[in-house]
Amino acid sequence: MSQITEENLHEEKTLKELLIRMNRIEGQVRGIKGMIERHVYCDDILNQIASVQSALDGAAKLILEKHFKSCVKQRLLQGDEEVIDEVLKTMFRLKR
After folding, report:
1. How many angstroms separate the CA atoms of 55 and 59, rounded?
2. Dist CA 50 CA 17 (whole Å)
3. Domain for residue 1, yes or no?
4. What CATH number does residue 14 fall under?
5. Which domain holds residue 90?
6. Element (H or E) spanning 44, and its range?
7. Number of domains the chain contains
């Protein structure tokens, strides 16, 4: 049986937060689809799309932070420096 540590609790809290965010984003995307189907004013749709993009950016930042503090740190400690190039590629892709 694994020991419950502060880090494990933090991971569970982060997981729950991410799932809540994804559910909210999913709802926003369905809402945008409905707006398009109802022929809502284009500027209103674009504002909702910008909101979803911002929400996705926030989720990506949270995942990136956890990735650095866990996976990347662990691989660096094991001497695997290839992870640096991997993370840089991912970050550049996110910033497009």
Report:
1. 6
2. 21
3. no
4. 1.20.58.1000
5. 6-94
6. helix 42-67
7. 1
